[in-house]
Design brief:
Blueprint lengths: L1 H11 L1 H16 L7 H20 L2 H5 L9 H16 L4 H29 L4 H22 L19 E3 L14 E3 L3 E3 L1 H17 L3 H11 L1 H6 L4 H27 L1 E3 L8 H10 L9 H26 L4 H17 L8
Antiparallel strand pairs: 1-4, 2-3
Helix pairs in contact: 2-13, 3-8, 3-11, 3-12, 3-13, 5-6, 5-11, 6-11, 9-11, 12-13, 12-14, 13-14
């Protein structure tokens, strides 16, 4: 029995087991603090489907040794550009949704290519440089959102006739086109977002399949040992650039799925810290700076979003005060600090 427990701890990691048990405790506690259990389950499922693709986008760069993508904001900006251009074109339904994705991919490839060139110049310091790239790109686009020539009355400031609003509503365009697709209702409070989950599963499968190809295998080799990759004739810089582009493209798609489910496009400084929850979720799933897998994404998103959903509401109901934002910051940043300061790698 003791050996079995040790094997479980070794395979899944003590922190994740503790967090899982704490999560179970929170769910048990919900009826005693005035929170509906079925509503909590629904919130967790929705948040999982909203954030899964953003966390998935971190996988390519980790596999090629570029580290955790703290410059995720570049992909998010590409996604926002695709979304607002789609609305400017008055595209609605699935047509508008996939138009936004197509435009976002175009910008993401350009941003990812330039981003990859930069990271190839700063090998060993990718995460530090990526953080500044992400922050500076958000600040730069805060200026551009005011200057770009958008004309849609649903997006521009009414009093000035120019410049995009801080928040843009997707209702009337492509709000919940995935979430409501094949939606399954369980009881009165659980609405399973089948379309969003299937879309996440499709992208997950494509990423998994990509790393089974020749290029994908070469990227893994680059991440494992650059000297060996060079001796095999693999162009290390090229593989790293491909991983950065791929990561940026997936992030662009991920933010559009997030907006489709959330119902709003948030501009200006809203994307500034969006990389941190995604990184925290991946690390919580068992990934490290140099190793990550699809399993880490699924486990990490579920645990992180569950804790992020349940803890603030339960604690706020117990102490009769809203501390949700404070708890969210402690959870996300605390997990990043913990994971990045670990010396040993967790088995995945």
């Amino acid at each position: 029995m003791k050996k079995k427990i040790q094997n479980i701890i070794e395979n899944y990691g003590l922190p994740r087991i503790i967090i899982f048990l704490f999560l179970v405790f929170l769910f048990i506690l919900t009826p005693f603090v005035g929170i509906r259990f079925d509503t909590s389950i629904n919130d967790v499922i929705v948040r999982f489907s909203m954030n899964g693709i953003l966390v998935l986008s971190l996988i390519p760069m980790v596999k090629t040794g570029c580290g955790l993508n703290f410059g995720l904001q570049l992909g998010i900006i590409a996604g926002i550009l695709g979304a607002v251009i789609s609305i400017e074109m008055e595209m609605i339904g699935f047509t508008g949704f996939f138009t936004a994705i197509g435009i976002a991919i175009f910008f993401a490839v350009i941003f990812g290519f330039l981003y990859g060139l930069l990271l190839n110049k700063v090998k060993g310091d990718e995460m530090v440089v990526a953080t500044y790239v992400g922050f500076s790109s958000v600040s730069f686009m805060s200026i551009m959102w005011l200057m770009l020539p958008f004309k849609s009355p649903n997006m521009i400031w009414a009093y000035g006739g120019s410049g995009l609003r801080t928040t843009i509503n997707t209702k009337g365009y492509w709000f919940h086109v995935l979430t409501d697709f094949l939606q399954i209702k369980i009881g009165n409070y659980i609405f399973f977002p089948t379309g969003t989950i299937l879309f996440f599963a499709l992208l997950t499968f494509l990423v998994w399949a990509f790393f089974k190809t020749k290029i994908g295998t070469a990227m893994i080799v680059v991440g494992s040992n650059t000297d060996y990759a060079n001796s095999c004739g693999i162009n290390v810089d090229k593989m790293r650039s491909i991983s950065v582009i791929l990561s940026t493209v997936i992030a662009a798609i991920g933010i559009i799925v997030y907006q489709e489910s959330f119902g709003f496009i948030q501009l200006y400084m809203a994307p500034l810290f969006m990389a941190f929850p995604a990184v925290a979720a991946l690390l919580l799933g068992g990934a490290t700076v140099g190793k990550a897998s699809i399993k880490n994404v699924i486990i990490g998103v579920f645990l992180f979003q569950s804790i992020l959903t349940m803890t603030p509401s339960v604690v706020s109901n117990i102490i009769k005060s809203d501390m949700s934002e404070t708890i969210r910051i402690i959870l996300s940043n605390g997990m990043i600090v913990y994971a990045l300061t670990r010396i040993t790698r967790v088995r995945t």
